[in-house]
Amino acid sequence: MIETILAKQLVKVLLDHQMTIATAESCTGGLVAATLINCPGASGVINESYITYSNEAKHRILGVEKEILGSHGAVSPETVAAMAEGVAKVAGADVGLATSGIAGPDGGSKEKPVGLVYIGYYCQGKVWVEENHFKGNRNEVREQTVIKALSSIYRHLK
After folding, report:
1. What is the pLDDT at residue 4?
2. pTM of the model
3. CATH of the domain at 142
């Protein structure tokens, strides 16, 4: 499984801080949550996660405003920021982690190429977003997204 050492470290930090995490995933399709759930102690830090692949799901489940989705699209810093905050609030979690991107092999454009992935984080009332440009096939882009997401939130919490 992807970076189980990193996932174990993140679960430990969350347990140590008595914090919970929830994920809202689009391009990763549940891979972030699955990676965390493979770790001992995960049941103490993760109780809900969502695969919100469609815009309708992003709006209905996470509360992402239709105006944001219409103006900026699903793959945008604005959308992923709203997803991260929305999932934390919906799940009652301390940390929200969201992914949205274009894993390929098609679906990209000049403005939003294949490999473009935004990762959003919500923690302690603050939201931040990272823009990433990954290379590789669909699975490689998804795996790189998981590694980047877990390592970034780990560094922030540590």
Report:
1. 84
2. 0.96
3. 3.90.950.20
Within a 10 A sphere around the Cβ of 15, how many other Cβ atoms? 14
Per DSSP, the residues of 3-65 read THHHHHHHHHHHHHTT--EEEEESTTTTHHHHHHHTSTTGGGTEEEEEE--SHHHHHHHH---
Distance of alpha carbon 63 from alpha carbon 58, whole angstroms: 7
Indicate if the pLDDT at residue 62 is higher than 90.
yes
Tell me how far CA of residue 21 lies from CA of 15, 75, 140, in angstroms. Answer: 10, 22, 24
> Domain tally for the chain?
1
Looking at 63-117, list the stretches that DSSP marks H as alpha helix, in order from N- to C-terminal side: 66-72, 77-91
Task: Output the CA torsion 36→58→156→132 (10° steps).
Answer: 100
Tokens encoding 97: 């982690």
- 27-40: string of b/e by CB count within 10 Å (b at 16+)? bbeebbbbbbbebe
Residue that is written with structure tokens 């140590």 in the block? 16
Are 115 and 80 in contact by the 8 Å Cβ rule? The answer is: no
| Domain around 131 | 4-157
